[in-house]
Structures are given as structure tokens and as C-alpha cells.
Amino acid sequence: MAQRSRGRSEPERPRPRPKPPVGAVLPVVAVAGRPNVGKSTLFNKLTGRRQALVADTPGVTRDRKEGTALLRGRWVRVIDTAGLEESAPETLAGRMRASSESAVAGADLVLFVVDARAGITPADAHFADWLRRQGRPVLLVANKAEGRAGADAAMDAYSLGLGSPVAISAEHGEGIADLMGEITDRLPPEPEAVEPEEAEVLAPVPDATDDETPAPDDRPPGPLRLAIVGRPNAGKSTLLNRLLGEERMITGPEPGLTRDSIAVQLSDAEGPIELVDTAGLRRKARIEAPLEKMSVSASIEALKMAEVAVLVIDATEGVHEQDLQIARLIEREGRGCILVLNKWDAVEDRSVTRQAVADRLETSLAQMKGIPVVTISAMTGAGVERLLPAVRKLLAVWNRRVATGALNRWFEAALERHAPPLVDGRRLKLRYMTQVKARPPTFLVFGTRAEQMPEDYRRYLVNGLRESFDLPGVPIRLQCRGTRNPYADD
């Protein structure tokens, strides 16, 4: 009789998260309210993901954050907004309120969130009156209404004159199902279905074995994922606003305004782009506050999900060591990188600055040799039109495949120019090379004891690949696999 296996069963693979139809126009639901009433917690609960930063600190959310949610079988776009506060327009709170007002103006439904435990405050009443004047449908949500006492406290929200409040606890998930039903009931009716056009049939990707023609890139369908990274106050949010042509992100002289990673959509001549603005990355030793640690984690996660990273540097300050650390992080994650020298209009001696940057990159960032450099002024818009074409060009390099025949002809010539070194008194016997993947370009070398290849010979091969096959500015991975000698044990 066969014995039952006592080993642990393999864990089930997580099911892929459903996505809305590509190109669909989704109804917009904006989550609004004064600070610290739980808007971001509710946003995360509706979208089913921890997208927005949540902390026990008022005013964590500054920029609008968007996500999609499937509510009762209907896809919607949910917008988390900054807390509504009465402040002068030129202050940070005033700029945050202007951003929230813009989200409310474009919403099909506004969720006005109040704190049931704190009761109805004069600020709640003030903004309830303001919402009534906007002419948008409003659904009143009484959050933090846990248990019977919380439900009784939620009834105070009737005094706002916005109809019956929906009592929920976003943190504990209470009442969320009822809220989803209320949201879908109040949205405009869905448009009539249109017969889809005949789908385009894509030809299978051939193997890159032809001597002359490399296989096309294996980039999956979807928007180009582009992350904007850099130190605080380098002009990342200003650049995003300039690319969008609108004041989407809150900007100002204060460093560290952006706290979360904010994704927005735009398009260029070649297709859609998902553009992510991230929080500034400071030196690790200076990061102490828990909220900043969360911001940095969100920035790194956005970088991991990107295909190309735009590293924004303040040209008036030059390339700092922290800028190089960020570039090395981009290289370790295997992403394409474009260096943007912002505030170029404020640079006095441009030729000297450009040469200083080139020298610093040559000596401190040799693993990203040939990295594209674009000089711009995000404030005035000068040079910004060159950025997206440079991104598209770098993306093509990042996706490039080299034909196996051409690759091995180059490999043979490289071995003749510089023979493999001796390791433990025996010379490495490298036989052939193949490209195993793109994104970034990854090559595999086969040979006897190839896995013992010294680092300097690896760099020799990587630099040769970069120069011979035009692979500037992208990480190149070189893997080695040894072949077993059948007589080694005799």
C-alpha cells in the first residue's frame, strides 16, 4: 500500500487580481472629508490593496491618489484626496485643498467621510455646505462607527443635511459591503455595450537563432511604466505636472512635499504611459520618522514595478553621492535609467557643469555606461519635450534581443582578443553564449568552470556587449554556467 506523503502541501498560488477593461471610461468616486477621518483607510478597503499610506497623523495624504475598484460587478475609479481645511491659497493646506476641490469637481459621486467617534465638528458642517454648492452627488459616510455605540454616534451625521449616513468601520471592515451597494446604486447608469472590433492576432515570437535578424522584444501589452525618482526638492512633481500639462501634484519650495507614490496616465505618439511620481529618497541614516520610512518603501516599490526610471537631479547642485546611490539602486533592480538635469536654466556655466557630470558618471557609475542625460527646466518647460522620446529609445534598448549567430561571432572574437584567465592554474574554457531574456538584456555563458569567471573578465565581456550591440544606459546581466567534465572523478 502506498504511504501518504507527510510533507507539507504546496501553497496555492494567489489568483491574479482582476483588472478593468483596457480603455474603458470608468465612473469616478472621490473620497473627501477633513483630515484624519479615515479616508485613506477607506480608499485601501475599496480598492482591495494597501495603495495609500495610512498613519495616525493628520494630513498624511497630500496629493490625490487614484485606484480602481470592482464594486458589485462594476468597475469604478476611486480617488483619495487630501483633508479639507480652511487655509490661505498660498499655504500648503490651501494647495492641498485646491487639489481636493479639483477631484470633487470631476467626480460622479463624492463620499463625504466624517468621524463618528469625534462627532460632527464645525469643519464638517462647513464643508458639507460647500459640497452642496458643488452640484455633485454626495454619499455621507460615518466612519469609525464600530459596534452599537459607534452606530448610535453615526446618527449625529443626519444634522449635516446630506441624507442618511452609511455607518462603517474602514479599519475593521464593518459596513463596507453595504457601502459598496450604496455606491453602485448612486452611480450613473452604465453605457450600452458596443460590439468589440475583431481582435488583432499577434504572431508568435520566433526564437533568436537566425544569424542576422534578432527576435522582437517580449514586452507585454499595456502602458509603459515610468517612475520619477530622486532626492527631495529636485523637481520631480514639477516635472510630472509639466508632462501632464496641469497642476496634478502639489509643488512648492518645501522639501519632501510628496509622501506617497502617485500614478497618473498620459499618452505620447507611441501609446499610453503610466507615470509614477515618488517621494524623495534621502540617505538611509537620515530617515528616522516612521512616515518617511513608509514613503521610501513606497518609492522603492514603485521603482520595482517600473520599466524605466527617470532620475531627477538638481543641476545647480551637481551629482551628489545620494544621486549615485539611487542610480545604483535602479541598476540593481534591472531598470533602464535616464538622468534628468533639472533647473538647467539656473546653471551659469553649462559646459563646465555638463563635463563635471560626465566625469562623475564615468568614474562612479561605470556599470551604467552610456546613460542618457537630458537637460531641462521643469519650471519653464524648456527641454521637457526631449524626455519622452529619450525614454522610448531607452525602452527599446532595454527590450533588445541579439541574434544568437551574431552574438557568438562576437564572442569568439572577444575570446581571441583577450583569452579567458587562469583560475587555480587552469584556464577557463568558454564555449558559447546566448541571450536568455531581455528586460534587461541577460546573457548566459557556457563553458568548463565558467561559474568561476573572475569579476574583471565579466566586466570585459559586459563592456564589449554594450559597445558592440549598442546597449547604452541599461543594466546588462551576465550569467555563467559550467559544464561537467565526465573524466573529472576518474
Helix count equals: 12
Instruction: Summarize model confidence as the mean pLDDT.
Output: 79
Rg over CA atoms: 27 Å
The residue ranges in which pLDDT falls below 50 over 5 or more consecutive positions are 1-14, 196-217
Write out the strand line-up for the largest beta sheet, numbering strands in chain order: 2-3-1-4-5-6
Structural class: alpha/beta
**Element-level helix/strand string:** EHEEHEHEHEHEHEEHEHEHEHHEEEEHE
Let me know the number of strands: 17
CATH hierarchy class name of the largest domain? Alpha Beta
Number of domains: 3
Subunit structure: Associates with the 50S ribosomal subunit.
Binding site for GTP 1: 33-40, 80-84, 143-146
Region (Disordered): 1-23, 187-221
Protein name: GTPase Der
Describe this structure in words.
With 490 residues, the protein is of the alpha/beta class. It has 3 domains: 28-186, Rossmann fold; 224-398, 3-Layer(aba) Sandwich (Rossmann fold); 404-482, GMP Synthetase, Chain A, domain 3 (2-Layer Sandwich), CATH 3.30.300.20. It has helices at 39-47, 92-105, 122-134, 147-154, 176-186, 236-244, 290-305, 321-332, 350-364, 387-398, 404-417, 455-468; strands at 28-32, 65-71, 74-80, 109-115, 138-143, 166-167, 224-230, 262-268, 271-277, 308-314, 336-342, 373-375, 422-423, 426-427, 429-437, 442-448, 477-482. The strands form 4 sheets. The protein has a 6-stranded mixed β-sheet, sandwiched between helices. The longest helix is centred in the middle third of the chain and has 16 residues, at 290-305. The radius of gyration is 27 Å and the shape is elongated. Mean pLDDT is 79; it is low at 1-14 and 196-217.
